[in-house]
């Protein structure tokens, strides 16, 4: 098996995520402690004992999901399965920061601070209610791109997430997204679901957030990763620190090319993806993208032990 570790994005959050890992592995607990210290607040208490509405706020969800992914990765490392056992790492949107952190390109503290800034900047870029996102089910990326062009009517509307062959997310002004959702059914989509998000991510409306991130990223040390990172914007492996920094910036307004990223990894020898962190959303996408790929998810301490046991056989 040639594996890739993959890291989830926003929407995977749940109260209690990572707690079992922190209780079972001191190395996992240390990640949550480091994130709490970096942010100057007990984010771990919110993750484990807070309310889902507060955790789902973009500025909280982003560092929380990174912390959970890194805690699971540290638990795997404690069992002898390090990141260098993979050919590549990749993450969906904020998950790219988790991937960079897992691969040693970013410190946990820097990733937490960057994601807090990123989440806050994305939230503040567009007044609440003026932007929206919708998942278009049953149409491919090219069809949704055409749909967005037809529905835009001079307003911002883009295909934001190319998740899998039958799920593409659009992002833009609320009015344009609503027009596209209506038009999608006429064009053969199975469903068009307006998503419960607080801002229109990965489109040109995020330009103010990109300006904020340009300043934040300029101040952070990004090292060459121990494993190449397949980035959202390029959909291929990147290892040069300056290029990784530039792609993180472009990712704020650019599309998440997840389907292409998975196909690229498969074409470059990957036979198994291992989703590390909260939920199983990426695993479902991978199965729809390439049925030949084996998949695993690592959410709990038992998942870690089971996977490490298999890896050492």
Please tell me about this protein's structure.
This protein is an alpha/beta fold. 51% of the residues lie in helices and 16% in strands. It has 14 helices and 10 strands. A hairpin with a 6-residue loop joins strand 7 and strand 8. The longest helix is centred in the first third of the chain and has 21 residues.
Low-confidence stretches at least 5 residues in length (pLDDT < 50)? none
Distance between the termini: 12 Å
Strand content: 15-25%
What assembly state would you assign to the polypeptide chains in this entry? Answer: single chain
| Structural class determined from secondary elements | alpha/beta
Mean pLDDT: 96
Write the SSE topology.
Elements: E1 3-7, H1 19-24, H2 26-39, H3 43-49, H4 52-56, H5 58-78, E2 86-91, H6 95-102, H7 108-125, E3 131-137, H8 141-152, E4 157-164, E5 167-173, H9 174-186, E6 191-194, H10 207-218, E7 229-230, E8 237-238, H11 241-253, H12 258-267, E9 272-276, H13 281-289, E10 294-298, H14 301-311
Parallel strand pairs: 1-2, 1-9, 2-7, 9-10
Antiparallel strand pairs: 3-5, 3-6, 4-5, 7-8
How would you summarize what this structure contains?
With 313 residues, the protein is of the alpha/beta class.
